[in-house]
Amino acid sequence: MGFWGATFILTKKNVLLSVRDYTTLIVALSASFFAMLVLYFSQISIDNGEGFAPELLDNPNPEAHGIGLIPRCVPFETADCLTFAYVPADDENVEQWIDSVSIRNSIPRNETMAFASGKELNEYLFDNPNRTQAAYIFDNDSLEQINGGNVSFIVQYNETLQFEFPLDETDFHTQVVVPSMVHQMNLELMRYTLRRTVDISLSASVFPHPNIISLDNSNNGGLDAFGLHGDFLTFATYFLSLIFFLYRIISEKERGLRDALKLAGQLQSQHFISWCLPYFVFNTILTLLLIAFGHAFRFKYFTVSSFFVYFLTFFIFSLSLIGWTMLVASLLKKSTSVSGVAFALFTFGYIIGSAGSIVYSIDENGEPRVSESVFFLRQLFAVFPTTMFVKAIYDGNILALQGIKISFSEANSYISVFPMRECWVWMAGSGGVALALSIYFDNVISTGHGVPLKPHYFLQSSYWGLGKKKQPTFGNELESRGDESEQSDEGDRQGQFSQSYDPDSEDADVRYEREAILRGQRDSAALVIKNISKKFRKLTAVDNVSFSVRKDTAFALLGSNGAGKSTLFNMLVTVLSPSAGDAFIYGLSVREDPAAVRKLLGVCPQFDLFWEKLTGAEHIELFAALKGLSKKEWENEIVDRLEDVDLLDVANVLAGTYSGGMQRRLSVALSLTGDPKIVLLDECTSGADPHVRQDLWRAIERAKKGRVVFLITHSIAEAQQIAGRNQIGIMAKGKLRVLGNALHLKTKFGVGYRLSVILHESSRVEFLTNALSRTCPGSLLISSENGDKGETIAKYGLPRHATESEVLQSVQLLEDQKEELHISDYSINSSTLGEVFTSITSLSEDAHEDETLETKKRCCF
């Protein structure tokens, strides 16, 4: 199967995962309808004069509103406030007028304050901002001529517009405070001048006018709901799809599923294409739905404007979001952070987009409203696609409200500052740059899975596939020479057995294997590990390990937790890079040729990696495609692999419904898919019940033919079952301690035979010990302890070099002197691999306990 065939299956996988999460899919798609529905109801509100800017609506008969009492102030940043101040102080008439106005308007006198002069008032206002609502300032000259009946005054107020989110700006002072203060003081002055009570009712209304629309109207972008809130709601709709896909991409990376695909042969380009293509289709559907619902609800932006104008605005914006989504995905590691990051991006995007209306705005003469010193902000803001999206929608809506249908050719000439075509270019460009950056960061940022590339990787010819490529070596002739060498070495090692294991010196078998590798005698082996090491700061997880594995064999690496076996496993599958040394798989280096090495691997990690919403058959199909199998071979591969692990009956059942044992079997089946040259299994039967374990062992045994099986385990039974007749290595404290087949290890490091004797009298133990030492020289009393019924249980070790006749003589001794020694029963057993493992690991840990504790003190917190 070629590049595009595998890419098609990967894309199919992502489409299936999206479609099968139907609840989220429906929400994301239906958001387009609800966004337009909200705008429709908002439009009804505006048409009824209840919008956020009713003063701009067509109003031939404006309604008059009465001017009433002076509203009292409301404290904002202080504990108290002044409803109004007045100037001057200590004027008898002014004090009388202020008293009367305060009483009539129910304003406490402590909410008023007198000042001697306007200068003194301004100083107070400057020192106490947001505390005084307004002020009366009386003209001194008119106060001196008050008897003439002509008194003038000024109402001073802060004319800065107040902002109330989400109702935009308000001019409360101009429309309410100032008219009421003028009216109330005029009533008092007329009462004072006329010497009688005066009651005058005043009303105010706007001048009759048609719809007020202009290109420089930056307050609300037009008089319809789409102009007011269309950019916000359409942006939010697209952002839902962003979150939908971003979560899936991050979740796949976080769970290690992407690395599983990478090990199966997925290229980075296939990863990006397989995610961007469904996202592109989804956003295209979303764009068409938004346009369809926009037409259905009869918004002028859609009914008047050219189709290509608004389609390109929406479509290019959705394309740019794909690049930005992939950029964020390359930076995030945890799916739990998606919602928080998405909310921050949404908030920032909308704020920066709304702020752009100021930066790009022009007046009625076409002149910019901002100074040239901040023109650079236009390019800076344009980097973010939301800014250009809001700008393009704003312009298109204003033109549509004026009945102007702008064509594609006119989209670059209707205005001088960032017309729509320029907005499209900026959106497409920013999305493209974001996509390029996402590819770069995806390569160089470590995610905890896999080895990141160097920051300058794109300057290396090897990245672009240039230069000579090293090919794996599968030649039968070379492999046969390797077999002969191995057989010769086994002969050379005879007689090198030591009497006991010394953890402070390298075992003879391990040393011999290392020397053979360094001399090149193992170069033709399928797997060659040469002095490989891995350090994490001060902690050495794998320390100078060397061994080789031949084709058609299995190798089991035993070790307790923390021995370094999983770290070695991760280096072999190219997830970790060695700190020193190297490993070669059919001649390919895991350091220099990781991509080529991965093509040869079948990997079953310690923890199951699968997609809950894919069936077992779809998993096999996916991995078969990545392994290069043709479409015709998929069906046979699905049947063979699932039949191997007894999952054929549930081939079309979602993997998320499988039991733990079934999921483990699926993981093993995936590791065998596509005829890998080397199968690496990490605790492959962990958590499986005995029946499942036996089935998996048989499947792995069948898989040894024509390939290498490399097994990481802490199960003695599993190691002996799969690799007992080939090779077993035992690791402890990061080092390879012993090496050989099961029989060899038991013979070399076991105690030979164990003899247990039950005696009625403990005094006979010494006599028995002396007798056994004569019949079988080297026999050793291991322990002597009392049983539950008062008997004595003596345990002896017969040396591994004991001959068969010596062992038989020892048994005959027990039979002949059974009554004399008061023996009630006895048993004899050979040493087990488990005993060898326990002995090797415990001795290694004891020998390095002080070193380990010191290392932990230095490296751990």
Automatic annotation (TrEMBL):
<keyword id="KW-0472">Membrane</keyword>
<dbReference type="GO" id="GO:0005524">
    <property type="term" value="F:ATP binding"/>
</dbReference>
<dbReference type="InterPro" id="IPR013525">
    <property type="entry name" value="ABC2_TM"/>
</dbReference>
<dbReference type="InterPro" id="IPR026082">
    <property type="entry name" value="ABCA"/>
</dbReference>
<dbReference type="GO" id="GO:0016020">
    <property type="term" value="C:membrane"/>
</dbReference>
<protein>
    <recommendedName>
        <fullName>Probable ATP-dependent transporter ycf16</fullName>
    </recommendedName>
</protein>
<dbReference type="InterPro" id="IPR017871">
    <property type="entry name" value="ABC_transporter-like_CS"/>
</dbReference>
<feature type="transmembrane region" description="Helical">
    <location>
        <begin position="341"/>
        <end position="362"/>
    </location>
</feature>
<dbReference type="Pfam" id="PF00005">
    <property type="entry name" value="ABC_tran"/>
</dbReference>
<feature type="transmembrane region" description="Helical">
    <location>
        <begin position="307"/>
        <end position="329"/>
    </location>
</feature>
<keyword id="KW-0813">Transport</keyword>
<dbReference type="GO" id="GO:0016887">
    <property type="term" value="F:ATP hydrolysis activity"/>
</dbReference>
<dbReference type="GO" id="GO:0140359">
    <property type="term" value="F:ABC-type transporter activity"/>
</dbReference>
<dbReference type="InterPro" id="IPR027417">
    <property type="entry name" value="P-loop_NTPase"/>
</dbReference>
<dbReference type="GO" id="GO:0005319">
    <property type="term" value="F:lipid transporter activity"/>
</dbReference>
<feature type="transmembrane region" description="Helical">
    <location>
        <begin position="374"/>
        <end position="394"/>
    </location>
</feature>
<feature type="transmembrane region" description="Helical">
    <location>
        <begin position="232"/>
        <end position="251"/>
    </location>
</feature>
<dbReference type="Pfam" id="PF12698">
    <property type="entry name" value="ABC2_membrane_3"/>
</dbReference>
<feature type="transmembrane region" description="Helical">
    <location>
        <begin position="423"/>
        <end position="441"/>
    </location>
</feature>
<feature type="domain" description="ABC transporter">
    <location>
        <begin position="527"/>
        <end position="758"/>
    </location>
</feature>
<feature type="transmembrane region" description="Helical">
    <location>
        <begin position="22"/>
        <end position="41"/>
    </location>
</feature>
<dbReference type="InterPro" id="IPR003593">
    <property type="entry name" value="AAA+_ATPase"/>
</dbReference>
<keyword id="KW-0812">Transmembrane</keyword>
<feature type="region of interest" description="Disordered">
    <location>
        <begin position="474"/>
        <end position="508"/>
    </location>
</feature>
<comment type="similarity">
    <text>Belongs to the ABC transporter superfamily. ABCA family.</text>
</comment>
<dbReference type="InterPro" id="IPR003439">
    <property type="entry name" value="ABC_transporter-like_ATP-bd"/>
</dbReference>
<feature type="transmembrane region" description="Helical">
    <location>
        <begin position="272"/>
        <end position="295"/>
    </location>
</feature>
<keyword id="KW-0547">Nucleotide-binding</keyword>
<keyword id="KW-0067">ATP-binding</keyword>
<keyword id="KW-1133">Transmembrane helix</keyword>
